[in-house]
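We close this part of the discussion by returning to an individual protein. Part of our work consisted of pairing the sequence of a single chain with a tokenised description of its backbone. What the numbers capture is local backbone geometry rather than side-chain detail. The amino acid sequence and the backbone structure tokens for this protein are reproduced below.
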Amino acid sequence: MSRVQVEKTYKLYIGGKFPRSESGAVQPVLDADGDVFAQVAWASRKDLRMAVVAARSAQESWAGRTAYNRAQILYRAAEMLEDRRGTFIEQLSVDGRSRDAADDEIDAAVDRLVWYAGWADKFVQIVGNLNPVAGPYFNITAPEPTGVVGVVAPDDHPLLGLVSVLAPVIVSGNTAVVLPSTSYPLTAASFSEVLATSDVPGGVVNMLTGDQAALTPWLAEHMDVNGLEIAGVPADEVGAVIDAATENLKRVSDHRADDWYSDDAQSPYQITAYCESKTVWHPKSK
């Protein structure tokens, strides 16, 4: 018997769930022959607002977990990405990569998740400090997560670039609202499914496939977003985005890389870019 071909529609990822865009808008993803490979939900400003609410609701609980537990969860995401290698090879091929190039990008993305998982319980020892003071006191400085961070992911290497800017945001206890590549949304939508099966609590990562250029100003201006990663913002638009982000003094970081495969594309200091330094005083016991 002939059967109806079931074409997948990739949804948004908000609060640990997969809703359609509130507008119902979708965009087709075409293969090399110009045929529809899949449909991807197209986010609106209302979807963005809902994603920020979900990220804020999840942030305190996520930050309250131990660093070791966050490391376990990132490592689990690396495991699930490896397990779905065949799916990502197919999707990266639709995005125009050869099978070998897709394989290399998946390898690098898995390795980057593992690398940041390894830093989860170590970076504090680099940037934290016991400060010398005059008097019978301990003066201790330690990093704490900033809060909700907006992530504008790069177009080049839509999987590896996404992982490279997202992992350092969430590993310290921040939550994220992510605007993935407009040109290559498929791998980001599929990566949401990796996160959903990796014990990442709902709301820690919220993925909004859509018109990145249209949504970025609203993310930058949102008063309940504390930080912004702008690796995917075109160079000639960076100034305007930074101006928009100053309304509530957001932290703005730009970790775009010339080569996402390079060791220069990963650093523990990318983690601390989304942290605040908290200093406490404590009397010494006699």
